[in-house]
Amino acid sequence: MSGTAAPVLPTLQTGHIGLNVTDLDRSCAFYRRLLGLEVTAEGTDPERRYAMLGRDGRLVLTLWQQSAGGFETARPGLHHLSFQVDSPDEVRAAERTLRELGAAFAHDGVVPHREGSASGGVFFTDPDGIRLEIYTPAGIADTAAEAPHGTAPTCGFF
Question: Global pTM?
Answer without folding.
Answer: 0.90
